[in-house]
Amino acid sequence: MAAVVLDKVGKIYPGNVEVIKDFSMAIEAGEFVVIVGPSGCGKSTLLRMVAGLEAITSGDIHIAENRVNDYEPAQRDIAMVFQNYALYPHMKVYDNMAYGLKIQKFPKEEIKERVHNAAKILELSHLLERRPRELSGGQRQRVAMGRAIVREPKVFLFDEPLSNLDAKLRVQMRLEIQRLHQRLRTTSLYVTHDQVEAMTLAQRMVVMNKGVAEQIGTPDEVFNTPASTFVASFIGSPPMNLIPVQINENKEILTDAGQVLQFEPHLIPDALKNQSVIMGIRPEHIGLHQTGMEVDIEMVEVLGSEQLIHARLGDYPVVVRCSTEETARYPLELDEVIQIGLNQGQPLHWFNKETQRRIEFE
Questions:
Q1: What stretch of H or E contains 33?
Q2: Where in the chain is the domain with CATH 3.40.50.300?
Q3: What is the CATH number of domain 238-352?
Q4: 303, 272 Cβ separation under 8 angstroms
């Protein structure tokens, strides 16, 4: 195990295109950190910089207290699992897993021991004599992970390793990766655009946006106290409802269209009096036919045990996530106007209109 420290790391491509901006983070030895964000946010570039596949423009990267800026990838003692499995099609599973160790001239007996140990961990022992074309997608990805495990590296790097798998296999492989980390406790950095992967795998997560870390924290911290409107709208399925409002001296909340929202005064901090802000509400924290705000129903999505109700508050979309039991008690019609409100004990979130950052209160 080894700690990884990124200190004000930056990356600028020719043409003054800045893709990573002063990124700093300390990853503890044995920690599993997930970098999540939309396509083009810089997450894979950041991972490749740690791996040594991309040169950094500024800052420093330390692995196990060694400054590795000028180290070649092979000198960094890392192992990487890619989105495509990158297996040698003409080699059997055993040889694919052993190849890196053979190149490094490890003794045959040690290679055999390491491969069989990794195969046992990943339940690949019965597949060692097969070739990649004889394996399923999930099995091929396990072989790619096994090839990384036999190296016994200081750090594992995962670059969207589950993107090519179907939904069922992705769930299975997430469990495999969780079990693998619990067993090996190797420092791991995992990149994905899938927030479900991020929330389920991460001990800590980094939400990236345009080369900047919008928020670094545990999944609970990121979900319950998003640091910006970007994080609030990216993490959560469906994402948080964000509504620009004005709050007057009496703590009344008014929309841009002048509609008054009926929320309890104790939910509104005194510091927001006479302020224009963005109000956030999680879809699952909203209840039907409660005092709060009047919306027009546009569509209802049935998702088995729950439903997503798509509505509109003036010019702003609002999504309500509720159980089918609740909608069974109160059948809904399209274009119907209903009252929705905040479920008891649930919070409202507040963001600055100009900076889009979360407003913190003492």
A1: strand 32-36
A2: 4-230
A3: 2.40.50.100
A4: no
DSSP 271: G
| CA terminus-to-terminus distance, the chain | 39
d(CA 68, CA 89): 33
Contact 222, 205 (CB under 8 A): yes
Give CA–CA dist 126/137, Å, rounded.
Answer: 16
Tell me where in the chain the CATH 2.40.50.100 domain(s) lie: 238-352
pTM comes to: 0.90
pLDDT 10s digit of each residue in the chain, 362 long?
A: 689 999 999 999 999 999 999 999 999 999 999 999 999 999 999 999 999 999 999 999 999 999 999 999 989 999 998 888 888 999 999 999 999 899 889 999 999 999 999 998 888 999 999 999 999 888 898 899 899 899 889 999 999 988 888 888 888 888 888 988 998 899 999 999 999 999 999 999 999 999 999 999 999 999 999 999 999 999 998 999 999 999 999 888 999 878 889 888 888 999 999 999 999 999 999 998 888 899 999 998 988 888 999 999 988 999 999 888 877 777 788 888 899 999 988 999 999 999 999 999 87
